[in-house]
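Case study 2.
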Amino acid sequence: MTSPQSQPAKKRKLSNSMPHQTNPNNSYSWRELHADLEAQKFAGAYGADNTPYLGISEKKAGVDLREFHSKRTTDECYVEEFIKLLSNERTRKSWDRIVTFDPEGMTATCPTISGCKANLNIPEIQTAVQKKEIKIPASGGVINADGSVKVTKAAIQYAWNLPSLASRLNLEEKEA
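Prediction:
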C-alpha cells in the first residue's frame, strides 16, 4: 500500500477573474495577506491552538511540517461547493472588508480553511423519522433514511490582517 503523501493530487486555485479592488482605507488587502501567508511572511506560528502539538509531532517524527503541509494528497478533501462559492464574483465583492482570515485559505499552501461533508445525528430528528413524523423523499434530501442530517462543515483558522484592522479601528498599525 502506498502512503497518501506519495500520491500528490492537483492543487486547485480559485478563479481570479475579479479586478483588484484596493481597500479604500488601506492598501494592504486580502490579496497581499494571502501572498504573505504563501511566502511564509507572518508573525506567529501556523496551527494556532495546535502549534505546540505540531511542534512536538514535527520533532518526534523528524518531518518538516511546512513541507508536509505544502503537498496535497488524494485523500484530502476540498468541498466543491465552497470552491465554487469562493470563486464567485458576488462573494468576492466584499472581501476587502475581511480582516480576520484569508478568504483563499482553502487553496493555500498551508490551508487556513478546511471543509468536509458529514452526517449530524440529532436525536429529535431521528426519533421523528422513526415515528414517520418526518417523511424522507425517495430522491434523497437533507435528511438521510436513518434520520441523520447531511451537513457541510468548515473550519477557519484566523489570519489577522493587522494593517486593515488598525485602519478600521482608527489606530496606527503598531497600536493594533
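The two ends are 50 Å apart (CA to CA).
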